[in-house]
Amino acid sequence: MSTSPSLPSPAPPESAPGGAVAVLTAAGSGSRLGAGVPKALVPVGGISLLRRAAAGLIASGAVSHIVVTAPAEEVDRFRAELEGLPDGSAQGEAGRWRGIEVVAGSPRSRQASVALGLTAALAAVPQADVVVVHDAARALTPPEVTQRVIAAVRAGYEAVVPALPVSDTVKEVEAHRAGEPEPVVGTPRRDRLRAVQTPQGFSASVLVAAHRAGAERAGDEALAASDDAGLVEACGGSVVVVAGDERAMKVTTPTDLALAELLLEQQPTQGRCPAEGSGEN
């Protein structure tokens, strides 16, 4: 994975005739949150993670269509949750905004769900030149991160991930069963490590090719790629890193949810993002 490139400012919509589309992955069960509902419907600051994540993509002014992957039995509920979000044309995609589409994801793996979303997104906007893949669990991601990622793809990088430097020392271990001591086999240099976030951006053709090449892995969560950049790397592609943002944290546990609530309290303007409006939460 390459280090952060020096990048131009985000490209204006008129310089990108194909347009960018987004796949918003939201098919996770959220069992570790223990909320009794799909994770994407868990509220933070009174608004669901799903609605906040979609609103953030729209606010970037850089995407023309969003496809949400939902648990198959929750598709209608997810559609209702997204009602009333602002029209993307007001954010810079005038004449391009196609709206938000909700499709059933896959229970097999995140990779399989993204593949379904990718197919739907490119069916809706066949001329799309950029695809971003975002996790609804990273609902507080600022719009500027999406702009930065798409700008890097348009600058010629085929795969771009936002990331932050790692502050902890990281040990590589020989994996043992849970609870057993694990021998340390190495200590990577911390200055070369980055904690990767989403949205991740790709040339549309590169992401399609990577998913095709890695399709056999998608049926088993243990073998499936944990992120889409990993699929590109696996088939010999080049991935670069751009600056991420601490607010793009992933909400997975109750502690994460509490931290997200605290971030919203400290940044009231983020709490009044265009996610507010109708919707079930």
Would you give an account of this structure?
It is a single chain. The chain has 281 residues and is of the alpha/beta class. It has 8 helices and 12 strands. Helix content is 28%, strand content 18%. The strands form 3 sheets. Strands 1, 4, 5, 6, 7, 10, 11 and 12 form an 8-stranded mixed β-sheet that branches. A hairpin with a 2-residue loop joins strand 2 (43-44) and strand 3. The longest helix is centred in the middle third of the chain and has 15 residues, at 110-124. The protein is globular. The relative contact order is 0.21. The model is unreliable at 2-15 (pLDDT under 50).
Chart the SSEs and their pairings.
Elements: E1 20-25, E2 43-44, E3 47-48, H1 49-59, E4 65-70, H2 75-81, E5 99-104, H3 110-124, E6 130-135, H4 143-154, E7 159-165, E8 172-173, E9 184-186, E10 194-196, E11 200-203, H5 204-213, H6 228-234, E12 240-243, H7 254-266, H8 268-271
Parallel strand pairs: 1-4, 1-6, 4-5, 7-12
Antiparallel strand pairs: 2-3, 6-11, 7-10, 7-11, 8-9
Helix pairs in contact: 5-6
The largest β sheet comes out as:
8 strands, mixed
For the secondary structure, the number of strands is 12
Name the helix and strand elements from N-terminus to C-terminus, one letter apiece.
Answer: EEEHEHEHEHEEEEEHHEHH
Which value, in Å, is the CA radius of gyration?
A: 18 Å
What's the helical proportion of residues?
Answer: 25-40%
Query: Which class of secondary structure composition applies to the elements?
Result: alpha/beta
Shape: globular
In round numbers, the mean pLDDT is 89
Question: What portion of the residues fall into strands of 2 or more residues?
Answer: 15-25%
Distance between the termini: 39 Å
Q: Counting H and I runs of at least 4 residues, what is the number of helices? A: 8
Unreliable spans: 2-15
